Amino acid sequence: FMLLSVGDGRLELNIYSYFRDLGRRRCNVAAFMPEAAGFDGVSDRSALQEFSVSNSESFWAAVARQRLSWIRPFHTVQDCDLSRGEIKWFVGGQLNVSVNCLDRHVHTCPERVALIWERDESGSEVKVTYRSLLEMTCRLGNLLRRHGVKRGDCVTIYMPTCPLAVASMLACARIGAAHNVVFAGFSAEALAERIRDAQSGTVITVNQGVRGGKVTELKKTVDTAVQSCPAVQQVFVAMRTENPVAMTARDVAMEEEMLKEDVVCEPAAMDSEDVLFLLYTSGSTGKPKGLVHTQAGYLLYAALTHRYVFSYHDGDVFGCVADIGWITGHSYSVYGPLANGGTTVLFESTPIYPDPGRYWEMVQRLKINQFYGAPTAIRLLLKYGDEWVHKYDRSTLKTLGSVGEPINTEAWEWYHRVVGDGRCPVVDTWWQTETGGICISPRPSDADAEIVPGMAMRPFFSIKPTLMDTEGKVLTSNDVSGALCIAQPWPGMARTIHNNHQRFIETYCRPHPGYFFTGDGAYRSKEGYYQITGRLDDVINVSGHRIGTAEIEDNQCAAVAESAVIGYSHDLKGQGVYAFVVLKNDVEVQGAALCQQLNNMVSKKIAKYACPDFIQFVQRLPKTRSGKIMRRVLRKVVERDLDGVGDLSTLDDPTAVQEIIQGHGDLCGKQP
């Protein structure tokens, strides 16, 4: 450097400027992620992303040592072979998840609010500090131990979203038992199937649930379910309402018994790969899959994605409105925020109770900074107009998130423009129950990096997306579509299917050996951004043309609130396109004119072959209570297989199906 500086002062200045800017960038990236200071050659966020992919072990080792509290350190970062479905992270390490979510924060900030329970009754939130949540968890852990629940057992939790449900999950983690949370909208039959498959001897529930102003008899559902579950020895019953329920010899009054327990509960030292929880998700065979997530890798991945995708900072209030019965509730209402010492909202109600301003009134009252919801809810609220949003102060919002399915462009733009006032980044996140946490999202990235409406865009740290063609070959260019796979393991991924590892291998590892097969299709743009095009089993093949249902559903017609598209058997084309369309409240034009308008838009956006053969206008679509559209039900209606519709108890409004059946009968014959 000295020799160079003698010859040319300008060169000396340029080199000085280079090293000064390099130092600033390194400081910036280290401020963004402190671990990056120890990564060779990482001077900015782009280099950090590249390092995390090419040096995955070094990346995750540093993050794990820094962000988790270990009882015993790990000796091997990962031992994985995707071709055989063998996945192990942080081998040799021991920790306790509840300690990482509670005790370590109690030591530093015991009175910080951990949970804000947004009860169904608007305006009646309940705040729970880290100290209080730890005491609740310890009492419940001791109670479970006293009743014979031991390390390795599986406890089924059938509760609404509430602090006691979170304490139940953490109490299981504290004593080394796995939990199996079953969405509290499932029927007795569906609950029983999950209890039996998980081999649970213990169930935790409440007397009644309250949602959208309606009371549901959860204890009665459990009573019916356990009649066909001989392994169940005990049912712990908490009181959500003041209404008494019939108690049997196996029932335990949970809160009453918890008061008898000590507020200190010794945490179990769990191996990194011990089971943390089972979570059942639908499978193509119709039999639910009990996906298994383990301790250290899952917790670390949930925590890191929570902090960096949403730019969560200490003191923020994080508002994930998912039910705890789904993976989103697990990762981003409970484990991610609590591992980060955050304040997380537990939302018990619905987006339109008592009115369509519920979300935004809650944002104003609780001063929520990050809001994470489902596209189907956004489309529903869009239908009610802007005034319900403008009525409330949303100035505390910093990031808006979307989860569960691809978000159409119109809903994205309304979310960004109306809800976020055009100033909040919208992170359209792609991930699955199987992935444990967010894998593709517009953030983290530079603050001024572009965000394209309706695209998940960028892979998270260490995630390496790969697109495959129909012959199983890797597509290396951009501006292509294919089957979405992930080319290397990551800590948050599911390890197996409970009691059926062969099914795990066949579903996720065998289709493309050496890769994790997601079951989704994706498009990679010219710029290298990813857009999810829908489930591959939701792809419609019209005269040899493959169309993702999401491509057709992503309409930009001002009259349409939301839609669901399915394929059906067609004598000439192989498959035809059938569209169910919900219109906005103020739409006057309907019938043939609107059908023609919609077909013209699809023809222009995709191609004529993608135009729906049938368009059925409906008042509402059949959805689960988490907001997922039940396309399986729609498919059965169109196929006239009404006996195959199956259990509708998980739907938010089962009467929607009857209206659709009637409308389908009226429509057939009217359109070609």
Structure description:
Strands 12-11-8-6-7-14-15-24 form an eight-stranded mixed sheet, with helices on both faces. The chain has a seven-stranded mixed sheet with strand order 5-4-17-16-18-19-20, with helices on both faces. A five-stranded antiparallel sheet has the order 22-21-23-25-26. A hairpin with a 3-residue loop joins β29 (560-570) and β30. α5 (97-108) packs across α7 and α20 (631-638) runs parallel beside α21 (655-667). The protein is of the alpha/beta class and 672 residues long. The longest helix has 24 residues, at 9-32. The chain is globular, with a radius of gyration of 25 Å. The chain contains 21 helices and 31 strands. Pfam families: ACAS_N, AMP-binding, AMP-binding_C. Residues 556-628 form the AMP-binding enzyme C-terminal domain. Residues 47-101 form the Acetyl-coenzyme A synthetase N-terminal domain. It catalyses: acetate + ATP + CoA = acetyl-CoA + AMP + diphosphate; propanoate + ATP + CoA = propanoyl-CoA + AMP + diphosphate.
